[in-house]
Amino acid sequence: MSLTRRELIKIMAAASPVVLAPKAFGALSHLVGTEDLDLSAGRKFNFNSDWSVKVGDVPDASNPDFDDSGWQIHTLPYAWNENDAFKVSIDELSTGIAWYRKRFKLPEACRNKKIFFECEGIRQAGTFYLNGKEIGLSENGVMAFGFDLTDLIKFGDEENVLAARIDNSWDYREKATNSRFQWNDKNFYANYGGINKNVYIHVTPKIYQTLPIYSNLGTTGVYVYANEFEIQHKKARINVASQIKNETDSDQKASLEVLVFDLEGKKIKTFSGDNVKVNAGNLAVLRANALINDLNFWSWGYGYLYTLQTNIIIDGKIVDTEFTKTGFRKTEFKDGMIYLNDRVIQVHGYAQRTTNEWPSIGLSVPAWLSDYSNGLMVEGNANLVRWMHVTPWKQDVESCDRVGLMQAMPAGDSEGDVKDRRWEQRKEVMRDAIIYNKNNPSIVFYECGNKGIMDSQMQEMKNIRDAYDPHGGRAIGAREMLASKVAEYGGEMLYIDKSATKPLWEMEYSRDEGLRKYWDNYTPPFHKDGDGPLYRGGPAKEYNRNMQSHAIEDVVRWFEYWKARPGTGKRVSSGGVNIVFADTNTHHRGAENYRCSGEVDAMRIKKQNFFANQVMWDGWVEVEKPSMHIIGHWNYKKGVEKDIYVVSSSPKVELFCNGKSLGFGQKSNEFLFTFESVRWKKGILEAKGYNEQKQVICSDKLMTIGEPHHLKLTEVKRPTAFVADGHDLALVEVEVVDENGHRCPTALNMIQFELEGPAEWKGGIAVGPNNYIGSQNLPVEGGVNRVLIRSKNKAGTINLTANSDNLQGAKLALNPQAISVTNGLSHYFASSELKPSLGRGATPNTPSYFISRIPVGVKSTKVAINENNAQNSYDDNEKTAWENDGKLSTAWIEYTLERPATIHQIDIKLNSFRTKSYPLQITVDGKVVFNGETEKCLGYNTLVCKPVSGSIVRIQLTGATQEGKDIIGEEVSGKVLGDGVKTLHANAKGSLSIIEVEFYELVKNK
Question: What is the pTM of this model?
């Protein structure tokens, strides 16, 4: 168990003569009792408290003497239109001008020091004023920025006023160029206006280590990276480069001293660099490095972090100290695979909207709630989150560090290539994001676009990466980019791509939607699967699923990636991410006005597809911990007969009802077991999974729950105390339970809440009028719901009462703790006591996959036509293909293998793979080994061949191709999704067009 922040401060203070800053471990939580602002506690201060907010463009609001006494008081982060979140569709979120004002004082001891303002981000653009003078502008609506306040600040008893005019208009244009920002888009970037992220004040000496904030300040801060890894021996070289600025009147000779502290606060290493001359008024970089033994490497589900204390040393004395929290991990991207700490990992996770929002709050949640949400992804065995379109805010970035979740970090885009000023804006955001986040170990990918860009533009982005993060072990790429010579990874949206070189992983592989309210066709409110309105004139069945069919679809989709996992050949898939993890207030297709694609709902209550993915993903590549989940519940009415579905990673599954075997399930898609026409009987439904030796290796059970009896209120467990800072939130779960306390899975009762004490009701969400946003009366769905309660700037008991007709009510008391704020500043930070999760343990030393197939290469080809393009069918490039001329007589191709082999399987990606079936005959040295039709698929057909030894394989079309219903349908907007590559004879019935083909022998006794 790691030590608390207070204990760490004491340990480190004893280890070093320097007075330590809160930045060392996030921050020290100073509770009430500190009357004066303690500068010795650090150079970074929480600046979130007591902002006055007014919606509307108020004349003279930048004037420090302006009377804002009638304005609302809020603690940041705060979006002024937060109450719109999930109440209205994304395109209807309130926009306009809002003013934010803050009064504060700095003690006289700050005079003759540097004073900086840091903001993690706003939406969309803001002009800032200090004591009536304009100090700067931020317009990109994504990234952090900062201002130097030194020349305008007042000290002692004189009051300062910081004011900001924030404009979150959808059509906002950059003032200098009149250009729009491509990512300010109504489809995906929910518009929570105002100062919606954290703000800080920094007080430093005149010679100091800079902040990693390029916009306005032009500085890059501290850069920490590791190399010379010896993973097995737990050893690496740690390198530190700290940018410093000398704002004294004279040149200085300075060196860098580095102290490394582990998670327990133990100092494990001290090392120093050479003296460097820093001219007055100039920037310089101080460097130091050392080889460190017995390191704990950051890994999936193992958020081990170190704190580095970096001191500027002049004439043997410490003149400035900075703290950086980071982790060390080794990555490689080669052979079509991703390596983390020398172990191959196939990515499986989620493409989550960057806003990562909650009802009635938007994105501006306390840090513990970010850890809760992101930690649920890891609990569900996700190992990667791909934030979509824009850079995540620092709180989510740091949260992923702690929970051990790899990240793909975008800059800012919409879709498609852009030129002119819009491309420059994208580069600027990427630059700022890399500088700001370069020390966060969870970031493994930099994403340059939600759609492919030109190689020349990719090179520009790569140059930015190489300039500001050359040693961070992060691949840079974009969606698509399959054939790019510059991108270091790629992958499409919905399909299966394979590679023998750079990793390819799919970036939105399941886009279906389904509400948590609907279990199946047999459960109240008896919503038939797929029922819903037409969307833009077309059917939207895939976007109105119930939980059962949504979970099944997740299994079907993931099976395609499982088949192409590392170990299955020279060309493999590096996995994919499912869109989205939590329901989001963004572009939707289903009946609701928000997107319901999540594996959890907007309150992070788990849906059935959460458990399906959890079963399939429990391993780095191969499933390492067999498990299972019975989809659904066991509370039906007499006479109901339905199919039961079990998701399991065991080879065989047997179902029992009240101890009586119902037989073994029909296995499909590797993980799905179907038991047809099971008649409901009150009691216990149990499934058992067996290995090949007929031993039980996993099980799951459902039981019939009694009638609703009473309500139950539970505060969702949190790792930190509930604090009275005007921003913290308590997440409270309400359940309808039977007399034994078991949740009633079919209950839909309306709940009436009453709240007393120093708190603000924020509520929850449910299907109904205005989604019940802000209402103190809302129903449970499937027997459960959740509500949010916000603290105020006052401690005291908060009493919550829940009642429902004909049920016993419930009560819950909450007691937020007071914190100290002095003249508008504080040493309390929301992430101060949050500890990393180490639940999955360090990276295993064992291999993550086994070799199941041996590839056999191609020596040469023979065709009737288009001989020059024949190699396109096996060139490891999915953007090229060989095709005949559309005539059946030329619809064949012969491959001479590099060696004689017994071909057991052929993987083939045919053009129009989603919409066409091809009747094929395949021979090996003239002997027929396959004769049949290919299946429509998401990329590759695996054709099982009669094992015949030989060296010449002939693939021939034996009849007209068959077109039919698209395997995954068109996007309901009417946009036809990609289905291969463009060819001249794609529509001809005698067209044979091969994108990639691979030949395999099976490994015996694997």
Answer: 0.95
